[in-house]
Design a protein that fits this description.
heterodimer, A: 285 residues, B: 2 domains, transmembrane helix (chain B), membrane (chain B), MetI-like (chain B), transmembrane (chain B)
Chain lengths: 285, 316
């Protein structure tokens, strides 16, 4: 039922030119992914242990990123922080995009009243500024990691819905959709086997962008003291607890900021440098 | 054809009103219907069941939720925002001056950011592909990709720690004279301007480039019009709608940015008030502040859409 003949050799279809900027960005993302996975074995010191007599110590041998406001090793705290920032954001973006994309495709295929009601509802949710939404939920139920994941995914579901619905509406007008409908296929088959393969490229690019938004929002909430709670700390919380070192440019406040920036900028650059084929496959199928 | 514009705008305004209703329901639902009983929060864990029951009755918490929602929204329309839990002051009195402060901050940022961003956006679109354009594009991607507090801390590092032009975080409320004004506003405005401008540069650059790709601009190029004439006479008038649309949309970034900026620089605005209210779980205050932000956001987005309708010559 696909429009592509099956005999097209794989190599020519995957013959994307890899852009150097994209490659660098991809390596940085890979680096943080590895750090998040193996943070336990990479960290030179236990995160909670005070090992420096001085606070906000400078970078030196053995304390490669200096010490924080209590004299704890900053390198270990950054490595463990990666786990919270990347892990929570990844969980949230997976839930948000899964529910958003499934609902978006459903709305496009079913159409009619369901489509109108869902679109109106999600548009309304989308017009609550994201940081405000986070603040309200934290005010009402308090902050914990499951609450954060759920809140972040609720905040970014409407965007994923809107994006995938717009793509799916275009695919829905194709002849093969009509053929599938006449054949009597049901909704799960229609969205899973007919629509999804045709929008998966842009949807994945959108997932990357949404991941960046979630990292930004999570860091922002943690920075306000409303995100990840002590004794755990993600990168935003690390900036918050060491903000006192800003006046004398302590590495403890600069390094977590740089960590966030490298991750989010790399993802944006990678997506900007993706081959056009992957990003806009639905536009010119 | 002329009659379509008013009806389109009316339709857009109706949608905005409906959205506002759904949003206010979401705000009320998120803050007062979620688990965590208000009376228990107020009286603490050790309160007797009788005291909690009494307070629930006094605060009308035993009424059905939908009835409380209708009462609340009715109160909003009459300007009765309720009483703060934390210090028993009317919410309207707490918000009054703070709102003015936030509007001052937003207004000042707008005055600086709009001309700056439009100049950079339009010139980089004119010199598309040059080194200048690449630098502007990479810088805007960089600024968009980092959280506001990273921009704020970088600004403090640059202007207060290394250059020593401005004091660091400890800002006091006295804004006497020009120097005092500068001290209070400089850092927050610089931080917000960076964020807002980056969005605006990106969108206005895209809008101008889209117009530059049209057949009539190619026609003008072929007849030998100069680069500046091409942009200023042929492309810009047609890109004006999308650009103004971009300006309104970028300004909505202010709403998120202001929450971080007011907190980090200890600026006495609505956002700071709300963040403080969150830590004391002062629900009436949170709800009112949240509604102010949502209405502001909705106004900007609706204005952007109305401008897009008005500037589309096909609808005139």
């Amino acid at each position: 039922m696909t429009t592509r003949p099956a005999s097209v050799p794989l190599a020519s279809r995957l013959g994307y030119r890899i852009n150097p900027v994209g490659l660098v960005a991809f390596s940085v993302i890979l680096f943080w992914a590895v750090v998040a996975l193996f943070a336990d074995s990479l960290a030179p010191h236990p995160v909670g242990e005070i090992i420096d007599n001085d606070f906000f110590g400078p970078m030196r041998a053995g304390l490669w990123l200096g010490s924080d406001y209590l004299g704890r090793d900053m390198l270990s705290r950054i490595l463990l922080g990666a786990r919270y920032t990347v892990g929570i954001s990844l969980a949230a973006v997976t839930i948000a995009c899964f529910s958003g994309v499934v609902l978006g495709m459903t709305a496009a295929v079913v159409g009619g009243t369901l489509d109108t009601v869902m679109s109106r509802l999600f548009d309304a949710l989308n017009s609550i500024p994201s940081k405000l939404f986070g603040l309200m939920v934290v005010a009402a139920v308090g902050s914990s990691i499951p609450v954060l994941i759920l809140t972040l995914s609720v905040i970014y579901t409407p965007g994923a819905f809107r994006f995938s619905r717009a793509l799916a509406v275009n695919i829905d007008t194709m002849d093969f959709m009509m053929v599938a409908r006449i054949r009597g296929e049901r909704l799960p088959y229609l969205i899973g086997a007919e629509i999804l393969p045709n929008i998966v490229g842009p949807v994945l690019a959108d997932l990357g962008l949404r991941f960046v938004f979630i990292v930004l929002l999570l860091s922002g909430l943690s920075f306000l003291g409303l995100g990840v709670q002590p004794p755990y700390a993600d990168w935003g919380a690390l900036v918050r607890e060491n903000i006192g070192g800003l006046a004398f440019a302590a590495p403890a406040v600069i390094v977590p900021s740089i960590a966030i920036a490298t991750l989010t900028i790399s993802i944006n650059l990678l997506i900007d440098n993706l081959p056009q084929k992957v990003r806009d496959r639905s536009v010119s199928p | 054809m002329k009659a379509r514009v008013p009806s389109l705008i009316l339709h857009r305004l109706l949608i905005a009103a409906l959205t506002l209703l759904i949003v206010s329901f979401a705000v009320y639902f998120a803050t007062s219907m979620l688990p965590g009983d208000t009376a228990t929060i107020l009286l603490g864990q050790s309160a007797t069941p009788e005291a909690i029951a009494g307070l629930r009755k006094a605060m009308n918490l035993d009424e059905p939720a939908i009835l409380r929602f209708l009462k609340w929204i009715g109160g909003l329309f009459r300007g009765e925002l309720g009483t703060s839990y934390a210090n028993n002051m009317p919410v309207a009195a707490l918000i009054g001056d703070r709102l003015l402060n936030t509007l001052k901050l937003a207004g000042l940022t707008t005055i600086i950011a709009v001309p700056l961003a439009l100049t950079l956006g339009i010139t980089s679109a004119m010199r598309r592909g040059t080194l200048y354009d690449r630098i502007v594009t990479v810088a805007t991607v960089g600024v968009i990709s980092v959280p506001e507090f990273v921009i704020a801390t970088s600004a403090v590092l640059l202007f207060a720690v290394y250059l020593r032009w401005l004091p660091a975080l400890s800002l006091t409320g006295d804004a006497h004279g020009l120097m005092g004004m500068l001290r209070v506003y400089a850092m927050p405005v610089i931080t917000l301007t960076f964020g807002v401008s980056a969005q605006m540069i990106r969108m206005s650059r895209a809008a101008v480039i889209e117009t530059l790709n049209t057949p009539y601009v190619e026609m003008a190029l072929l007849k030998g019009a100069s680069q500046s004439r091409l942009v200023l006479r042929h492309a810009l008038p047609n890109a004006l709608g999308p650009i103004v649309n971009a300006v309104a949309l970028s300004l909505s970034y202010l709403l998120g940015g202001v929450i971080i900026v007011e907190t980090i620089f200890n600026y006495p605005g609505v956002a700071k008030l709300m963040v403080d209210a969150v830590s004391t779980r002062d629900l009436p205050l949170i709800q009112s502040c949240a509604m102010i932000f949502c209405v502001g956001y909705l106004l900007l987005v609706t204005a952007a859409d109305v401008i897009a309708i008005l500037s589309n010559p096909r609808l005139r």
